[in-house]
Design a protein that fits this description.
- This protein has a domain at about 50-160 and about 205-290.
- A four-stranded mixed β-sheet has the order 1-2-4-3, with helices on both faces.
- The chain is elongated and about 65 Å long.
- Helix 1 runs parallel beside helix 6 (about 155-175) and helix 5 crosses helix 8 (about 235-245).
- The protein has helices spanning about 5-35, 40-70, 80-95, 125-130, 135-150, 155-175, 190-230, 235-245, 280-290; strands at about 70-75, 100-105, 110-115, 120-125.
- It has about 290 residues and is mainly alpha-helical.
- It is built from nine helices and four strands.
């Protein structure tokens, strides 16, 4: 039976293994396309553009997400119980208290965290979450979101966005080029490399999205284990996940660009291949939590 600490350490190792594989994958794709174009500058341009877009989203992602979801900030006087709950959990792990936002959605219970670092962090809870969960379950959800902040998941997400962006741009540039490559007698025109380039241009973005989704799932497992370490009560978060996932109500403000932020997918009734799921199946998360020793 895994302990909370061993589970968290295992998830960290898996995450960084996937990140390393992602970097290697990007380098290989970049080298192949640069070879076929006979232009290393292609990789530099794609990297620069992706980096610029990702940095801007990193600095302003919290404002963008909060605006998209319609979340409103609350203070101590607005909801003392929730504020004290967050405050106590933060004190237990030595964290600064994040800004607390409430989503007006009274139907679906859900939550997310955003912000570029601990000092600029935000946790957002739906009214449905506050209405439908018991205190121990609510503690588990909040601890999970605080773990995302403490584990620097927003920073990792930015790095992954850069890598996915580089691959998407390189693939698009290659396909739009008509597969042309300047002649170079030293390198020789190689039909095999050209075929590989076409296949890579088509499949690379798909593979990148699969790796991105896999990384997202690993961070959810890590936040589950880390959250359970904070509360010392894995059952609270497990019960919360069961309630959230089994709730059939749709979330109006959720869309594909922010769905991965929530503790559980806000979409209902959609069939997606497990390869592209940004959240692990709830059954797996609950099993992992219930199998941990405090």
């Amino acid at each position: 039976m895994a302990t909370l600490y061993s589970q968290a350490e295992s998830n960290v190792r898996r995450t960084w293994f996937l990140v390393t594989m992602f970097f290697i994958f990007v380098i290989l794709i970049g080298w192949l396309f640069s070879y076929l174009f006979d232009s290393p500058s292609i990789l530099y341009i794609a990297t620069g553009l992706s980096f610029a877009m990702s940095i801007s989203s990193y600095w302003f992602s919290d404002k963008i997400v909060l605006s998209m979801t319609g979340a409103k900030p609350i203070e101590m006087k607005d909801n003392p119980d929730i504020y004290r709950l967050v405050e106590n959990l933060c004190i237990s792990v030595g964290m600064s208290i994040p800004k607390i936002y409430i989503l007006e959605d009274e139907m679906q219970p859900n939550a997310f965290a955003t912000g570029r670092d601990e000092k600029h962090a935000v946790i957002a809870l739906t009214k449905g979450l506050l209405m439908k969960l018991e205190k121990s379950e609510l503690e588990g959800v909040i601890a999970h979101e605080l773990s995302h902040i403490k584990n620097k998941d927003t920073l990792l997400q930015t790095a992954i966005v850069i890598l996915v962006g580089i691959i998407a741009m390189l693939s698009d540039m290659f396909l739009r080029s008509g597969f042309r490559r300047s002649n170079d007698n030293d390198k020789g025109g190689n039909a095999v490399f050209l075929i590989l380039g076409i296949v890579a241009a088509i499949l690379a973005p798909i593979v990148a999205q699969i790796i991105k989704a896999s990384l997202s799932r690993q961070r959810e497992f890590l936040a589950d284990a880390s959250g359970a370490l904070i509360t010392r009560y894995p059952e609270g978060l497990a019960n919360a996940l069961i309630k959230i996932s089994s709730d059939s109500n749709e979330m109006i403000k959720a869309n594909s660009s922010n769905a991965h932020l929530f503790i559980s997918s806000p979409f209902r009734g959609q069939k997606i291949s497990n390869l592209f799921l940004t959240h692990p199946p709830v059954e797996e998360r609950v099993k992992a939590l219930m199998g941990m020793k405090v």
